[in-house]
Design brief:
heterodimer, A: alpha/beta, 3-stranded antiparallel sheet, 13 helices, B: alpha/beta, 5-stranded mixed sheet, 15 strands
Chain lengths: 467, 352
């Protein structure tokens, strides 16, 4: 675009020059206006309308080729896409709703499948192609979000598998003043790195219930989402995206929440030294190989993605975050010989000791891409919180994530069998097990406290961490 | 399950609320640079806050005594050779005291080319209203009139001068048409669809927008000043005094009580007729009007629309002849004086 055209474009956008709105059909206006009811903020309403009309303008050559009957659906779809781009906390519900509708549309279209494809005209195909090309996606996703119906894809040409070279080991390639580069491509920003409180924890032996010797080596990873304000990935949001990441890093650093943060652009920030604890999963339980870990702040790395957990729809990660998360996981697992079975999502380890419920926090209680990260599926594992301590769940968890993950059902079935064997009711058994939680938690806390006071490091915070 | 919220979410929400008043984060500003008044709007936690200043000045001969009096009364002024330039809110008081006319840095919506001190005074007034940007590059949206025929070059100069001034304060300045700003502030419930009119001191600006997109922008060089000057010449009173009477007492629903009020009624009717006639012609002539799926509302803002009965006068004028498009309703902004600035603020927040 030359400078005159750019100037005109800018003037048009500021409303200093008239535009020609004739191509904005009343049908489109009705569709779009019907979607603005819940947008309370005038700025967001304006953003939505401008984005929607801009998209329509970009497609003005294609729209007339879409069969008249299909046009309302296209308008609706574009409107929902516009809603997913709204910013701010107040619009979170609208964004979710729109994503849900897009997902429902996708499902509906898949079901309608062949019939709809047959009915789709050449114009629709062209439009779909344009949608893919011209409009930015809201978030990078593992799977494309363009609805199947709007994109009747030609039969894909088989592509030969691409084999790439991967280093057998991961080593530090280069260390700069403010970064570290590893041989798998992982680049860690170390400008914010803090020396925190040294790790020190006492696992519990599952068989005996006794406290095992104190340890200070990390054993696993808990993956989190920051649940912070998330903007759509668009060039016009660049300044806000950068500012959000910067503020988030400062906030996490101030509270020593995680060891690593991966921002929307896939930048990996190290917040705490690897040998320090972080306040990321205080009330949390996980177990493997006969060892039970309660309070995972010391024994586990906290790795958080700048994102908001979404139980439905596409993965709430950008492509860059996914890639960076994989590289970081690979690096940590290899460097510290972490047990992959101890690499889990926050939502499946988090507990509320007061209510004896699991899923106190729900980030990654569903949908964590374990396979993509080269990790075993932790959702299939019976959580120690249920199996060993009889913790339950209520309707709130179902409301937040739908059904609990499969491991919970397995653990509950196991508990029922144990109850039958011991001649107790399941509730009686659960009550006994929750007392075990209190006892074991106290034991490991005392063991950790006794060493903390003897360590020549900064004192550990009094509480069990933020959870 | 209130406590199931994740920790950062809560903090972020809190900090979002606090951000509006956090001096380190800066605040986008909307500024209505009007011929008669300059109004600034910014968003606070509890809503939009506006402040305004009269866009006028009066020179008085320099003397140590006068300067001391001005200083003691905290009246804004600066010295220019053997004159003291009093500007802003106190100007009208001094003008009445000395029975002279106030002077304006702007005329007909643009920088006044006949006023040597125009730019300096305008910038001094704006400095008193608009703080330096807390964050370099913070967005400020300022209003500009529509280009009227033959005055396009003046508008370019006006807009560029203002933009440069705001940039010296550290802002990223974005211009917005006055009429569109009125639509942004008053027609949110109509999805920014309708006709917005800003009746200011120097001119009346009109915008017709469809889903926030302007498809018709124009202005007429008649506004509050036209009424003040015309009435002033008929009743032989300074326009500044007419303006004060007009703003404080005028009720267009009541029959005029004296010659001055009668003249005010006559020139108001003339202004409104000219305005409605211009809109009628512009709409009839426009070749880019949207295919609206419903009748459009009209919203009127600006200090000239403030007197009681203005809406009724406008409605009468609209009904006098057929209008080329369907109109759903006619309304006057809840706060006509600040509407343009509030709309500019929405534009600034959108640009942020």
């Amino acid at each position: 675009m030359d400078s005159t055209a750019q100037e005109r474009r800018r003037a048009l956008e500021k409303g200093l020059v008239c535009e020609d709105p004739r191509e904005l059909s009343p049908e489109f206006a009705r569709s779009v206006e019907g979607l603005t009811r819940d947008i309370k903020d005038p700025v967001e309403r304006l953003r939505f309308l401008r984005n929607s009309t801009k998209t329509i303008r970009q497609l003005e050559d294609q729209i007339p080729k879409v069969p008249a009957l299909a046009r309302p659906l296209v308008y609706k779809y574009l409107g929902w896409r516009g809603l997913t781009m709204l910013k701010g906390e107040r619009a979170a519900g609208i964004r979710r709703g729109a994503r849900g509708k897009i997902a429902a549309l996708q499902i509906g279209i898949v079901i309608a499948g062949a019939g709809l494809l047959l009915g789709a005209s050449y114009g629709t195909i062209r439009l779909a192609a344009s949608l893919g090309r011209k409009t930015p996606t809201v978030e990078a996703r593992v799977h494309s979000e363009i609805p199947a119906a709007a994109v009747p894809q030609p039969t894909p040409m088989p592509e030969p598998e691409i084999l790439t070279q991967r280093p057998n080991s991961i080593w530090l390639v280069e260390k700069g003043k403010d970064y570290e580069l590893y041989s798998n491509g992982l680049r860690i920003d170390t400008t914010q790195r803090l020396k925190g409180t040294r790790r020190s924890y006492a696992p519990i032996d599952e068989a005996s219930g006794g406290v095992l010797p104190l340890a200070s080596e990390p054993v696993g990873i808990v993956f989190h989402t920051t649940e912070s304000d998330i903007l759509s990935l668009e060039a016009e949001n660049n300044a806000s995206l950068l500012r959000n990441s910067k503020n988030l890093v400062a906030y996490i650093k101030r509270h020593e929440f995680y060891h690593y943060l991966i921002d929307r652009f896939g930048r990996v920030y190290q917040i705490l030294n690897d040998d320090s604890r972080a306040n990321h999963a205080g009330f949390a339980v996980w177990a493997n190989a006969g060892r039970v870990y309660m309070n995972l702040n010391h024994a586990f790395f906290g790795v958080s993605f700048e994102s908001r957990f979404a139980p439905e729809g596409p993965l709430p990660l950008t492509e860059a975050q996914l890639q960076a998360g994989r590289l970081l996981t690979e690096h940590l697992v290899r460097r510290y010989d972490l047990d992959p079975k101890l690499c889990v999502g926050h939502g499946i380890v988090s507990v509320n000791p007061k209510t004896r419920r699991i899923g106190h926090h729900v980030d990654w209680a569903k949908n964590f891409p374990f396979k993509t990260f080269g990790l075993p599926d932790a959702y299939q594992v019976e959580p120690a919180s249920v199996r060993l301590f009889g913790f339950g769940y209520d309707d709130d968890l179902a409301k937040a994530i739908g059904e609990p993950w499969p491991g919970v059902f397995k653990a509950e079935a196991e508990l029922q069998r144990d109850a039958l064997k011991s001649g107790q009711s399941t509730d009686e058994l659960k009550q006994a097990l929750t007392r075990r939680y209190d006892l074991w938690f106290e034991e490991q806390s005392q063991a950790a406290k006794s060493t903390t006071s003897s360590l020549i490091t900064a004192p550990a915070p009094a509480g069990p961490g933020v959870n | 399950m209130d406590d199931r919220k994740d920790h950062l979410w809560k903090v972020q929400e809190g900090s979002e609320q606090a951000a509006a008043e956090d001096p380190s984060r800066g605040t986008p500003l909307g500024v209505d640079v009007g011929t008669s008044k300059i109004v600034a709007a910014r968003r606070r936690t509890k809503g939009t806050e506006t402040s305004m200043q009269l866009n006028a000045f009066i020179p008085v001969p320099f003397s140590r005594f006068t300067e001391t009096i001005l200083g003691q009364n905290e009246i804004p002024y600066f010295r220019d050779g053997d004159e003291l330039i009093i500007f802003g809110g106190a100007t009208e008081r001094f003008a009445n005291m000395f029975n002279v006319e106030t002077r304006r840095p702007m005329a007909d919506g643009l920088l006044n080319p006949k006023e040597r001190m125009g730019t300096v005074v305008l910038e001094s007034i704006m400095r008193g209203l608009i703080p330096k940007a807390k964050v370099q590059g913070e967005v400020l949206s300022f209003s500009v009139p529509a280009a009227s025929e033959g005055r396009e070059a003046e508008l370019v100069y006006h807009e560029a001068s203002l933009r440069r001034f705001f940039e010296t304060l550290g802002y990223r300045a974005v211009a917005i048409n006055e009429g569109l700003a009125v639509i942004f502030s008053e027609l949110e419930d109509q999805n920014f669809t309708g006709i917005g009119i800003s009746c200011g001191g120097g001119m009346c600006n009109v915008a017709l927008a469809y889903l926030s997109i302007p498809s018709l922008l124009f202005g007429i060089s008649k506004g509050g000043d036209y009424i003040d000057n015309s009435v002033g010449s008929v009743v032989d009173e300074p326009a500044t005094r007419i303006k004060m009477i007009k703003e404080e007492k005028l009720d267009l629903t009541k029959a005029p009580a004296d010659k001055l009020e009668k003249a005010l009624h006559i020139y108001y009717e003339d202004l409104v007729e000219s305005l409605v006639d211009s809109i009628r012609k512009a709409v009839a002539k426009a070749d880019k009007l949207p295919r609206a799926h419903r009748p459009l509302p009209i919203v009127i803002a600006g200090g000239t629309a403030k007197p009681k009965g203005f809406k009724e006068l406008f409605e009468r004028s609209m009904k006098a002849k057929p209008f080329p498009i369907d109109i759903s309703d006619i309304r006057v902004a809840a706060d006509p004086v600040t509407a343009t600035a509030r709309g500019a603020l929405i534009a600034a927040l959108y640009e942020k």
